[in-house]
Design brief:
The chain is of the alpha/beta class. The protein is built from ten helices and nine strands. It has a six-stranded parallel sheet with strand order 1-4-3-2-5-6, with helices on both faces. A three-stranded antiparallel sheet has the order 7-8-9, covered by helices on one side. It starts with a strand and ends with a strand. The mean pLDDT is 96.
Length: 250
């Protein structure tokens, strides 16, 4: 596995590659869900590129950014184990050489659900993903369905700007309890991890979103939202001050 710590080095390595190229952009703190993205990329492409970059512009809460786990040594080991060809570690100074003067804004779906709860969040997501795409120029990019709204917005952005990139949706990876694997789970106590599984279990009940909200509150969650949109049920809750999101198909 080759490691690039600058855009120049990534472009140099990229110039030596034949098609096809699969790309998995991440913020690190990798887990089995990310490993599944990498396995899909390895199966469908000749080369797989993984990026690890904790993107500051998508955090509307600076404290949340500061608490985001940094596990680069473990991330590198997971990347090697799963056959990553190039690990790219972008630097903020390079990706945001314009100091975020230019950004991508979507004016519809990005204002609902996570966008309504976290103003500016999707501007940061879409902007950084477009920058990463422009450098890597992959044939396919892989995203997990746990962040379903994010995945849909990235797919729509890719189509709107005529980018020749296939956005591949990978089903959410869950543990035996049904809890969606997430980097944020690392901040939960063992007891809270067990309780967190009740989020997914509740979303799957044949009840209204309002009833699901009440049930989650009774279970001890602080509910940000439970909303049904376009044949999916989306939810965001807090447990031990950790924000958890999930979604299920209706």
């Amino acid at each position: 596995m080759k490691i690039a710590d600058s855009i120049f080095e990534l472009l140099r390595l990229r110039s030596e590659l034949d098609k096809s190229i699969g790309f998995v952009p991440t913020m690190g703190a990798l887990h089995e869900g990310h490993a599944e993205l990498l396995r899909r990329s390895k199966a469908e492409n000749k080369t797989t590129i993984l990026s690890v970059f904790v993107n500051p512009t998508q955090f509307n809460d600076p404290k949340d950014f500061e608490k985001y786990p940094n596990t680069l040594a473990a991330d590198t080991a997971l990347a090697e184990k799963n056959g990553v060809d190039i690990l790219w570690l972008p630097r903020k100074e390079e990706l945001y050489n314009d100091k975020y003067r230019f950004r991508i804004s979507e004016n519809d779906f990005s204002h609902l659900l996570e966008g309504r709860a976290r103003p500016g969040h999707f501007d940061g997501v879409l902007t950084v993903v477009l920058k990463l795409f422009q450098v890597v120029k992959p044939d396919r990019a892989y995203f997990g369905e746990k962040d379903y709204q994010q995945m849909e917005l990235i797919r729509d952005m890719t189509e709107s700007f005529f980018l020749p990139i296939e956005i591949v949706a990978v089903p959410t990876v869950r543990d035996q309890s049904g809890l969606a694997l997430s980097s944020r789970n690392q901040r939960l106590s063992p007891e809270a991890v067990q309780e967190a599984a009740k989020l997914y279990q509740t979303l799957n009940l044949k009840i209204t979103s309002a009833e699901a909200t009440m049930r989650l509150q009774e279970l001890g969650f602080k509910v940000d939202y439970v909303k049904d949109y376009n044949k999916r049920r989306y939810a965001a809750v807090f447990l031990e001050d950790v924000r958890l999101i999930d979604n299920v198909e209706l």
